[in-house]
Design goal:
alpha/beta; ten-stranded mixed sheet
Length: 340
């Protein structure tokens, strides 16, 4: 079996040595052949030269086409039965890929994602899988929390993370490739909602550990990041929420989006938030018209979103409350699943 690793990259050549070395150290099951493709998004530093000197195949783009388009170009340019999407700021442990492939021996598992820890403070969770609330906001479960037993339980999920996840190639045949209208951020949430519609679950595999330098390329709270996230949250609602869902979740949507605005403003990114809102509103009707067929099959999203929001509530309740989620759940009653 061939496993294809696709890495989107833009500048920051110094990240490549550690990343590619960690890929070479992967302890592969017998019969697994690994190919690695770096999709360079028009880097202006010596990234291409460094990657090639380390023996990695490079697909060089003439300009920065965005994360989603780079990943799609990489998926199309590889042949592996399993496709691994891996950020350039991640370094997986040697047994990371082996654990993901073991989970995918189950024919009912379409992707597998592991536990990411903070690269510098390795006792801190970077993400224990992803989740999305009914208000349209996504969260890396456990982000910023101390690692502990609550993050060591495997579970099924419909939300992959483009940071570090292995997919069956046939997954993309069923749900399509990443949303290229999302230059960066929440393209994996869009993919997860489509996976839920098609009933293609994945698995969170806590034994598969990788270390992540969050925001190493774009910046954690850069103006561009805030603008993208703000816009894309609105477009996810436009694309996937029926009129009935919008009415049912109006309170949650208002709470999630206003709290996100407050968070952005508190970080000095009020202008970026306004630009994101303006762009999202401008695109909202067009995206909604183009995705009418998708919403026609989105009835089961109500259950999936309730389960994902219950995961967020349980993690917050079991650890310590982030201000965003503390206030969200003061305005929005948690799903019944979180109380069982």
């Amino acid at each position: 079996m061939t496993v294809s690793i696709v890495i989107p990259h833009w500048n920051r050549y110094e990240l490549l040595t550690g990343l590619l070395d960690s890929i070479r150290q992967q302890e592969l099951p017998e019969g697994v052949v690994l190919e690695t493709l770096l999709v360079d998004n028009g880097s202006t530093d010596k990234s291409v030269e460094v990657a090639r000197s380390l023996g990695v195949r490079v697909l060089r783009l003439s300009q920065n086409e965005g994360v989603s388009r780079a990943l799609n170009r990489g998926i199309r340019a590889t042949d592996g039965e399993v496709v691994v999407l891996l950020n350039n700021d991640v370094e997986p442990a040697p047994d990371w890929l082996g654990h993901l492939l073991e989970a995918m021996k189950d024919d009912n598992i379409w992707f597998a994602t592991g536990k990411t820890l903070d690269f510098e403070e390795r006792g801190l969770i970077d993400g224990a899988g992803d989740a999305m609330c009914r208000g349209g906001a996504s969260w890396r479960l456990g982000h910023g929390k101390n690692d502990g037993p609550e993050f060591d339980l495997g579970r099924r999920t419909f939300f992959p993370s483009a940071t570090a996840t292995a997919f069956r190639r046939t997954f993309f045949d069923r749900v399509g490739l990443l949303e290229e209208g999302f230059f960066a951020y929440l393209e994996d949430a869009d993919l997860g909602l489509r996976a839920a519609i098609e009933k293609l679950p994945g698995m969170y595999v806590p034994e598969a550990v990788a270390y992540h330098r969050g925001g190493a390329t774009s910046g954690v709270w850069s103006s561009q990041t805030v603008e993208w996230i703000t816009c894309h949250q609105l477009l996810l609602i436009a694309k996937f929420y029926s009129i009935g869902m919008i009415l049912r979740y109006a309170h949650a949507i208002l709470a999630a989006q206003l709290l996100w605005a407050g968070l952005a403003i508190s970080r000095g990114r009020g202008g970026a938030w306004l630009r994101g809102v303006a762009l999202g509103v401008w695109k909202f009707s067009r995206v909604r018209r183009a995705s009418k067929q998708v919403r026609g099959k989105a009835g089961r999203l109500r259950t999936v979103l309730s389960e994902a929001e219950a995961d967020i509530f349980r993690v917050q309740n079991a650890t310590s409350w982030d201000s965003y989620w503390k206030w969200y759940f003061r305005f929005v009653n948690p799903p019944a699943e979180s109380c069982t």
